[in-house]
Task: inverse folding
């Protein structure tokens, strides 16, 4: 996919000759639990690094499946799985071939990799690094890594606020001028915002251009939309065993009558539950909501006032507005709701979806093209609503649901590249170019 190039939301690039400065280019691969995607970006450098926020633009992106975490048992194949993405970047950057050695390429893997055993994780990364070292782009081993959950959340916050025009070189970001970000992936969920008052845990210091701010960032591993499905399926199986119900075929309230759900407990489809089961959908919203709430462990001790769930400290959000993207926004769109949908609107729409039989669901929601998303819509919507309202305890009018802004994707990977550019002065300055047989900077 190619994105139209637009100017930054702020003006000026550090000196009066900024219109003549060359573009810099870079690529970042996001290794998520559900696939890998490369973003190719360009940005205008500055002669005075640190004086402004460097503003990159996505010039193209491409994706492949499965995600890098799927190669735990065959790490030697991970490089070849990423090859189409790097070939895409080479094709897109063909006109910059003379500068390929100065164009950085990064890989940041996310929660799917964080779920693996350390040896599995490192084996995959080492094979990625070995492949990247064969490329003509600029690469060092530390440029391929697993992002912490808190980093992933902050990258999403940067992307959301950058695309909404909230990051300006002449204005210090505050809780009144920024939005919080809510990211829902396949394996984890992130909440990040700038508290109105001090943060006593899970603080993330951030340096962007001339600004230094402190964010609250927390990532809930196992609370992505697919991991949550695994966790609730485990609860259903446990309940069936405790009630001496046949474990071969049991009911699941979060799926439509007529649909048979078989939990696989992996992204690659190569491993299954210790007891393989077939779960018959029962079309029961109340039962689904009660089931989903059980995985949040809201009764866990909260040692520091106040907590969200699982005993995790979360500062009071007060009136901070939030932007929910990724699967949050996908679910709201699949329900046919607007980007400013209220939480109660989501609950009403979810109750309706969860009342449908499979035949009714296939007919009334045929516009949801992906079969997996369509058949899992009751669970996805119930979990997303429960996480926002019951887990984070957000209010009805605090949230906007968007996957893009101005034609540009709201994605943590874009924020990661903004972060990298603004941390490394060498990425901020213009490249020297040959002019009449000599080097000069233009």
Result:
């Amino acid at each position: 996919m190619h994105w139209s190039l637009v100017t930054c939301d702020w003006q000026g690039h550090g000196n009066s000759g900024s219109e003549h400065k060359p573009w810099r280019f870079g690529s970042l691969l996001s290794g998520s639990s559900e696939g890998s995607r490369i973003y190719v970006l360009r940005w205008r450098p500055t002669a005075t690094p640190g004086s402004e926020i460097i503003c990159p633009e996505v010039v193209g992106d491409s994706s492949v499946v499965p995600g890098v975490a799927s190669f735990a048992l065959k790490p030697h194949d991970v490089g070849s799985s990423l090859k189409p993405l790097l070939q895409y970047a080479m094709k897109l950057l063909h006109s910059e071939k003379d500068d390929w050695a100065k164009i950085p390429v990064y890989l940041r893997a996310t929660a799917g990799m964080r779920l693996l055993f350390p040896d599995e994780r490192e084996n995959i990364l080492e094979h990625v690094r070995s492949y990247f070292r064969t490329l003509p782009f600029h690469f060092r081993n530390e440029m391929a890594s697993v992002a912490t959950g808190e980093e992933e959340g902050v990258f999403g916050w940067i992307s959301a606020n950058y695309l909404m025009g909230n990051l300006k070189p002449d204005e210090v970001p505050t809780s009144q001028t920024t939005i919080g970000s809510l990211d829902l992936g396949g394996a984890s969920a992130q909440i990040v915002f700038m508290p109105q008052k001090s943060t006593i845990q899970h603080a993330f210091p951030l340096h962007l251009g001339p600004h230094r701010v402190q964010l609250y960032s927390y990532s809930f591993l196992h609370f992505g939309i697919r991991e949550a499905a695994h966790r609730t399926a485990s609860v259903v199986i446990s309940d069936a065993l405790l009630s001496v119900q046949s474990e071969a075929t049991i009911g699941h309230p979060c799926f439509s009558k007529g649909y048979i759900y078989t939990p696989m407990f992996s992204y690659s489809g190569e491993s299954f539950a210790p007891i393989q089961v077939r779960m018959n959908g029962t079309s029961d919203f109340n039962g689904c909501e009660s089931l989903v709430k059980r995985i949040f462990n809201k009764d866990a001790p909260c040692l520091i006032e106040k907590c969200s769930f699982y005993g995790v400290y979360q500062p009071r959000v007060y009136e901070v507005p939030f932007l929910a993207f990724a699967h949050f926004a996908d679910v709201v769109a699949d329900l046919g709701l607007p980007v400013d949908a209220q939480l109660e609107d989501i609950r009403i729409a979810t109750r309706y979806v969860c009342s449908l039989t499979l035949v009714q669901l296939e007919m009334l929601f045929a516009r949801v093209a992906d079969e997996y998303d369509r058949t899992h819509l009751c669970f996805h919507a119930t979990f997303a609503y429960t996480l926002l309202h019951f887990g984070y305890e957000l209010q009805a009018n605090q949230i906007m649901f968007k996957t893009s802004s101005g034609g540009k994707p709201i994605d943590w990977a874009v924020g990661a590249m903004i972060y990298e550019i603004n941390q490394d002065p060498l990425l901020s300055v213009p490249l020297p170019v040959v002019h009449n047989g000599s080097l000069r900077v233009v």
